[in-house]
Structures
1.
Amino acid sequence: MAIKIEVPELGESVLEATVARWLKQEGDFVNVGEVLVELETDKVNLEVGAKGAGVLQKIEAAAGEDVKVGDLLGTIDEKAEAQQVKSEKVKEEKPVPADAETKQAEPQAEKQEEASRNDGQQAERQAATQVSPVAARLARDRNVDVSKIAGTGNEGRVTKADVESYL
């Protein structure tokens, strides 16, 4: 079943927003509550999280597009999660012949090296997303390097209050 990602209620007099940026791409696995997209309005910036776990199937509203309350931003495929888990279990359960193990030793070393590079890139991306949109805008406007600010928000996230206290 597909889960709809819709523009939530933005406030009493706010009816539309602009998609600031997507933090996830089509095909990425997402967990419940994980931030998917940032929306900006005249009054508030907000993050829209996943209502269910699965794979981000389709992005309907690209960055920079104007959207209204209730508009479809994208969809998450819950079944893709189940299919992904099943395929991983099948891979783990397959027995490997002894001569195949020696043939796989060299490529595995290369895969581990590539995985460690990918982990570093993922850590960089994660560090970049540990700043709330409002805090990022304030820091950008005031020419403040957010990497020098200790975040007090959820999971060490830099908040608007953190940037203001740094100033």
2.
Amino acid sequence: MDAVEKEITLQDNIENPEFKALFSFIFPHLKLPDQKMLSNYILISATNEVQTTIKELACQDKIGITIAFDGWRNVVNQELMDIVFITSSGETLIWRADDINIERQRQEEVIARIHMLFEETKELNIRANRFS
């Protein structure tokens, strides 16, 4: 069982009264984290791990990646711009989704954001061949 599975099992049992009693008995001086604190830790840790993997895969592409964009509105009516890296082997890597609610109205700001992304890829040593 890997570390994430162990943490998820702990998260599932964290609110169980019997588990709390056992934990208090074994570790009387330690405070058991609540489910929200534990889930935030897991989410942040998993997100960082995925971002690191995406950066590594994009950097390792010798031919270079294609950066694709897509836009949509979410359930709270925010304008979002999705940024996707496509490797030379065709693998799709979801980079991120940016809130462009204000910029969506002005093309200049969206173009500036794309130029900033291009600079960001250069700083990360990610070779970008084209945008689509």
